[in-house]
Structures are given as structure tokens and as C-alpha cells.
TrEMBL record:
Keywords for the protein's UniProt record, in alphabetical order: Isomerase, RNA-binding
Ranges of compositional bias, category Basic and acidic residues: 305-321, 353-363
Catalytic activity, as annotated: a uridine in RNA = a pseudouridine in RNA
Keyword RNA-binding attached: yes
Protein name: Pseudouridine synthase
Keyword Isomerase: yes
Region (Disordered): 1-24, 305-423
Amino acid sequence: MTKPHDPLYEPELDGQDGELDGGPGERVAKALARAGVASRREVERLIEAGRVAINGKVLTTPAIKVKPGDFLTVDGQLVAEREPTRIFRYHKPTGLMTTHNDPKGRPTVFQTLPKDLPRLISVGRLDLNSEGLLLLTNDGELSRALETPSNAWVRRYRARAFGDTTQAKLDTLKDGVIVEGVKYGPIEVKLDKAHDKAGGGKNIWLTVSLSEGKNREVRKVLESIGLKVNRLIRMSYGPFALGALAAGQIEEVGPRVIRELLEGVVPPENMPTGDRPKFAGIANPVKAPGTDGGGDLQRRGVPRADRVLEPKAPEKPEKPVYKAGWAKPKKKVSPHAPAKGAAKPKRAPAKSIETKFIDDRKPVARSKPVTRPDGKAAPKTVDGAARRVSETSGKPMARPPARPGGARPATGRGPAPRGGPKR
């Protein structure tokens, strides 16, 4: 009877790894993956390169178990004990490789992460020219579990493509398609909008949903029906969405969310506790850690120091609405009114009663001469015409002599006698 296929099984090691099927400890690849060093596939490459050792002995095969109390090292550095599972949402910008080391020396996602984060690995990948949501975790086993199509987690993308198509043609992708000998699973594509491009041609926006996620799957499948993708944004990965994260920002998923969404996927011993994540706020790493402004933590609502915000114009207060029966608001004080405590301006002196009754411009009607009791005519009063003559000549007018007893001579404009006319 032949044994089932096991990529870790090597016949030449028969009789030396009998403890793999039982006994304490776990496989070295699994232990390093859970510790967040790398995925199982990458751990196998590390072992082949002679970079992994147990208790000082370099490993040559991954078919080895790590027992409690063993010292596991990678590149001479002791691997810390595994910590509870942590997940991060990262908005990957274009121009970054989703790898730890790039042979061509291009910048990578992990070079721009904040300095206070643990060693992380990605859940799936986004190519150099793609952007959007990238899940990062410290649990290599979880990364592998979320990548497999068996979990049926839908990846949703927004794609801008150059070309022309119809919704009926896009619906044919629901049955899957074979491109260059590679079979791709069902893909749901919805035509959102189309607009003409300068110089001819047309750009269209599409919403693409799939659950497989092979290498450059969206670009290759759409290219097979005559569409050239020139922008690709991942909007969600399963229940995790990109949300309002700006390009380059990273935010940790709360422990409570992990317990609710990943029950049965994460082992109970790896489940995080508490309600708040260790990494509070949002990091916006513009540059690589270790450089000025690189990997700094940005609290929610607090702008970065290197950003210059334009002053906002003061908002006008809205007028309050008063219901019927309410007290009326106080009247607003005019800005031109004098301040409290300031001296009031002096008013011009009031005109005398004579100036109100005497018109200097028109001659006053002459009254009849008044006779004295002795038969002589009383002297005339200085009327308006005489006053004008005196003012033009410059000589003062002589006042009439006073009557005996201090009474002035009667004039035609004197006040009426007291008591009124007799009836």
C-alpha cells in the first residue's frame, strides 16, 4: 500500500522521522509559519539554504519537529514564541512589490511599514502596478488558509480598462475561461460606466468579483476579451474592506473582529484576547523606516507634521429658529453705536423761540401804531426789516426805553393776556 502524497515526505529519511506522526512538538515549517517568520513554502526555501537551526544544528530537511524547550534560530537570531494572531489592513500604493526581498532592488511593501510592527506576511499578493487592500498577518498558517479558494472568500476589484465591450459579453466569464492553457474559475464582471478617451478610444470602469486569485488573473482574463487594464484597485478581501484608508496607510483589525470572523479558522490557542488592538491609530508611512518621517504613527484626526493645511474660512453661524410663543431675541447693537461709558456727543444749542417766529428773509407785516394813554404814539419795535438794516450798516440799534415800572412797550406780536378773551 502506497502512502498518500506528502510534499514533505522524503523516502531516504524513513526510520529517522518516526516522531512526525506522534509525540510532542510541531513541524519546524509550521512553527516558523505560526511565529510569522514566513509561509510554509518560504520556510522550506530557508531550510534548503541552510539558514534554519535547532539547538545550534543546521537543518537540511523540513521533516523535523520542534519540541518544547528547543532553541529555534533563523540566520542566527532566536525565533520568539508565537504571539496571538494579528491582522492588518494596508492600502498598497502602486510601485511597491509584495515581497520581503526583490532581486531587482525595487521598493517593497515591507520596507515601508511602521517600525513598531512585528514581522508580517501578506495574504495573497498585488502586483507592482496594482493598488488597494492588502491583508497582512503575523500568522503564516492563517495566511495560507485565507489564500486557498476553498474558503470561498470573494475578492472584489475596481478595474479601468481600455476597449469596448457589452454586459452580455462580460457575462460569459461566469462559466470560467481558459487563457494560454490556464483554466480560471468563474468571474463576475459588471459594466459600471464608459467614457471617451482623448485621441480616440474608450475607457470603461468595471467591478470584478472572484474567489480564486491566481497570478495576474484579472488582467489576463479581461485581456482575453479585448480589454486592456490600465488601473486595478482591490476594494475588499472577504469580509475585510479597504474603507477610507489612504494610499500607504495601515490599520490593525480589532481582536473582537478576529474572534467573530475567523472562528474555526484560527486555532483557539492563537485567538487574541481583549477588545482593542495593540497598534492604535493609523500609520501613514511615506518613506521607509529609519528615514526622516518614515513609518511614523498617525493618530486619528491628527494631521501629520509634514503636511501644510490651508486655513479654513470662518463659517457663518446659522440663524436660530424661534417657535411661536418664545421670547423675542435681543436686538443687535449697531457697530456704529458709541461704546458703553463713552461721552455722548454734544448737541447743537436749541434755537430760541424768537428765531422760530421771526423770519429774516421776509419782511414782517407792520402792525397798527399803538397809542399811549397820554395820547402819544408808542415807539415802534425793531422788526425784521429794521434788523436787517442794522446788520448791513454795522451800527447797533437803540433799544426802546423801558416803561415806568420795568414794563416794556406793547407790540403787535406780544403774548396774549392771561385769562383769555372775555365772554
